[in-house]
Every structure is written in structure tokens, then in C-alpha cells.
Design a protein that fits this description.
The chain is 77% helix and 0% strand. The chain is globular.
């Protein structure tokens, strides 16, 4: 049934909002697939290339560290672009910079230059930041009752590319040989192509811009001025909206902690498995299943988030993460148990990201939402970068079991804040608690 009621006085009817939301979600899903190929391919070989360049397991963790650090570095600039100009320019630029970064990695690896390799990995982090910020775009036009679902299906779309990417190691090696490159650079060629295609599709298809459309500033003649998207404020100005808002604080702590646990363990898993003589193809399969755990079940997680509440699902995610590190940390050289632990690790990350991002999107006013979301992604990736930087040292000193125990500690503040929120009865109904 057609309705002519407007949304918040912004000039969009309910039908217009619903149509734009469906188009936006579909476009974001398409770009997440191709961008996910780029992400998955790079994750499969980054630590191995770093180890080959340095001859050190300790330094191998710097590959993922630089990616997550780059994602942190670019989180606020991309959010600032969204604040001023909408989602589309920032997302397209982020994918493009990731493509440039993978090209730098290829050149640096051929020349055996470790520092330029790290610079390229930082630029690849822009692609990671873009992949993460796409979920925020899915929430711009979403209704309260379906916000978790819409956000989660965009997260889910990464599954296809991200799972396919690590399994392209063999094909990538043959492609690399055809053009005279080392075998490990084959997947990096797919990273370059995936990020470049993601940028092009974003520019062409993400119209109207969802953030501008949410304020009735669609890309069409005669569109009215926005009152919801500020134009001249730093993303850091969203910080007071977090420190003075218990729900927003819980959301960000949950997102950051879930990501930190995941990165700490995932970064060193290829190195741990290689120590036990596991074939490269098996390492790729393990990472593929881990990434499947991260993304494949996100629609179910989104449905649970809408039905059971944001806080209960966030708390449940910490339980899944603790189970994951217990399984992986006690696996030793049992490949099946390591793989199971990595799948659970990805699932716990999904619980934390989807529920936390949904809670954050509805916990702050529209006018500051992009800035707060950018701040959230900054802190999330700083946590991941720190964990990645320490993971090689912890692995060397305490082994894989000690690394998993170290990662488990980051769940504690989330559990405390979430239990406090539930006891205090924050949030009210099942859909928003």
C-alpha cells in the first residue's frame, strides 16, 4: 500500500525510503563481493610475504598490523568525506586507495623492500576501512525494525569474495608465473583488481547517495537542502556523543573488543600452522572457513539482533569468542581443531560487529552519526593493529595457546558493560535492548 507520509519532515515518503533502501543494499552487496575478493586474497598471503622478506616470524605479524593500522588511519578521513559529501565519494576513494596499495605491495615484494611493502599494506587498509564503512551506509535509510537485518546482509555479501579470495592461492600462483612474478604475489593481483572494480561500481551504482537521501538531499534536480548532514565539523567532534552516552559507549567497546580478539588470533594462525608443516592450500582453506564464519551467518545474526535485542546478542558474541580461543588455543597441531576455533572466532566477530554497529547507529542523533561511526571504526582498527603488532611477540614468547589466552582478556570489559546494561534495563523492548 502506498503511503504519502513523510519521514521526519525530510521530504521522503515511506515508499521512497523503502525503494532507495532496497537499491542501496543491493549496490552495497555487489561492491562487497568484489571488494571481498581483494580482502581475502591479501589476508591469505600477507603474513607469508612479510616472513619471506624478513626471515622472521615476529615481523610476519606486521603485515596484518599495517592493514589494520591503515584502516584506522583512513577511518576518520573517509567518515569526514561522508559527513561533507555523502557515502559514495568516500567509499569509492577508499576502494581506489586500496588498489593503489596492493600495486605498491607487488613492486616492493619484487624489489625485496620491506618498508615500502609496509607502506603498501597501510594503503590496503583503506580498502578494509571501506569494507567496514559500507555497513554504515546500509543503516542510513533503514527502519528501526529491520536495521540489524539490512546492515547484516551487507556484511554477509563480503562472504562470497572473502571466502573465494584465500582459495585463489593456487590459481593466483599460476597467474603470477605467467607474468613473471613470485607465486605469493598471485593473490595480490586479485586484490588490485577487486579493489579497482569496487571503486568503479560504487561510483556508477550508488546513486542516490544513501546518507544524503536520508536527509532528502538526493542526487536529483530540485532536491531540498539538508539539515541532518553537517558540512564543516571534524569527525572527532562526535567523541562527546560517546563518552556521555552509555549505549553508544557499550556499542563501541563491543565492536573494538570483538575485532581485537579476532585479529590477534587470526594474524598468527598461518604462521602457527606452517610451523607444523601444514600445506599452503590447507592454510588457505582454514582462512576461508574463518572468513565464512565472519560473514556467512551475519543475516542470522542480524535477525537475532532485531528479535532478541542488541545487547543480548553482543553479550552472546563474547561467549562465542571465548569458546573460540579455548578451542584454538588447546588445539596444538590438530588442524581440524584449529579450523573449528577459527570458524567460531569469525562467528563471534560477526555477533559483535552486527549487534554493536546496529546499537551504535540508533544510539546517537542523525547529525553526528557519520562522525561517531568513523570514530568507532578508528578505534576498532587501532585495537586490531595493536593486537596484530603484539601477536608475533606473544606467539614467540608464549606459543599459540598463550596468544589465545591473551586475546580472551579483551572480552572482559564488554561482558561487564553489557551485564550492567541488562541489569539496569537499558533499551526497553527486544528490538533495541
Amino acid at each position: 500500500m502506498t503511503t504519502e507520509s513523510t519521514l521526519g519532515g525530510r521530504g521522503l515518503t515511506e515508499d521512497q525510503r523503502a525503494r532507495l533502501q532496497r537499491r542501496t543494499v543491493l549496490t552495497l552487496m555487489i561492491t562487497q563481493v568484489v571488494g571481498g575478493i581483494g580482502m581475502g586474497s591479501m589476508l591469505a598471503v600477507g603474513a607469508l610475504i612479510a616472513r619471506d622478506l624478513t626471515g622472521s616470524d615476529t615481523w610476519s605479524g606486521m603485515a596484518t598490523t599495517m592493514i589494520t593500522l591503515g584502516a584506522a588511519v583512513f577511518a576518520l578521513p573517509l567518515a569526514s568525506i561522508a559527513t561533507r559529501r555523502g557515502r559514495r565519494p568516500g567509499l569509492a576513494l577508499g576502494w581506489a586507495m586500496g588498489g593503489v596499495g596492493s600495486s605498491v605491495v607487488i613492486a616492493a615484494t619484487v624489489m625485496e623492500w620491506f618498508v615500502p611493502f609496509l607502506v603498501g599494506m597501510v594503503l590496503i587498509g583503506a580498502g578494509t576501512a571501506t569494507n567496514l564503512q559500507a555497513r554504515h551506509a546500509a543503516a542510513d535509510l533503514a527502519g528501526e525494525g529491520t536495521r540489524g537485518r539490512d546492515l547484516s546482509v551487507v556484511v554477509w555479501a563480503t562472504t562470497v569474495g572473502a571466502v573465494l579470495g584465500p582459495n585463489l592461492i593456487g590459481v593466483g600462483g599460476r597467474v603470477a608465473a605467467l607474468v613473471g612474478l613470485p607465486e605469493l604475489l598471485g593473490p595480490v593481483l586479485f586484490t588490485t583488481a577487486g579493489f579497482a572494480l569496487g571503486a568503479a561500481l560504487t561510483l556508477v551504482l550508488l546513486r542516490p547517495d544513501p546518507l544524503l537521501a536520508s536527509a532528502a538531499r538526493v542526487d536529483a534536480p530540485g532536491a531540498g537542502p539538508s539539515t541532518a548532514v553537517p558540512t564543516r565539523r571534524s569527525p572527532l567532534s562526535g567523541l562527546p556523543e560517546v563518552t556521555g552516552n552509555p549505549r553508544a559507549l557499550l556499542a563501541i567497546v563491543g565492536i573494538v573488543a570483538s575485532h581485537t580478539v579476532m585479529v590477534a588470533v587470526m594474524t598468527m594462525t598461518p604462521v602457527h600452522m606452517s610451523h607444523h608443516g601444514v600445506a599452503l592450500t590447507v592454510v588457505g582453506l582454514t582462512l576461508s572457513l574463518h572468513i565464512a564464519g565472519m560473514y556467512a551467518f551475519s543475516p542470522l545474526v542480524g535477525w537475532l539482533t532485531d528479535r532478541l535485542g542488541r545487547v543480548p546478542v553482543l553479550l552472546a558474541g563474547q561467549g562465542v569468542l571465548l569458546t573460540a580461543v579455548a578451542v584454538a588455543g588447546t588445539a596444538g597441531d590438530d588442524e581440524a581443531r584449529v579450523t573449528l576455533g577459527l570458524v567460531l572466532l569469525g562467528l563471534g566477530w560477526s555477533f559483535g560487529l552486527v549487534s554493536g554497529s546496529t546499537l551504535l547507529a540508533e544510539s546517537v542523533p542523525d547529525a553526528v552519526r557519520p562522525r561517531v561511526q568513523g570514530l568507532s571504526d578508528l578505534l576498532m582498527n587501532l585495537g586490531g593493529a595493536s593486537a596484530g603488532a603484539m601477536s608475533g611477540v606473544v606467539l614467540t614468547q608464549a606459543g599459540f595457546g598463550g596468544l589465545n589466552l591473551f586475546a580472551a582478556l579483551f572480552t572482559l570489559p564488554v561482558v561487564v558493560l553489557a551485564v550492567r546494561a541488562l541489569v539496569a534495563g537499558r533499551g526497553g523492548d527486544a528490538g533495541t535492548s
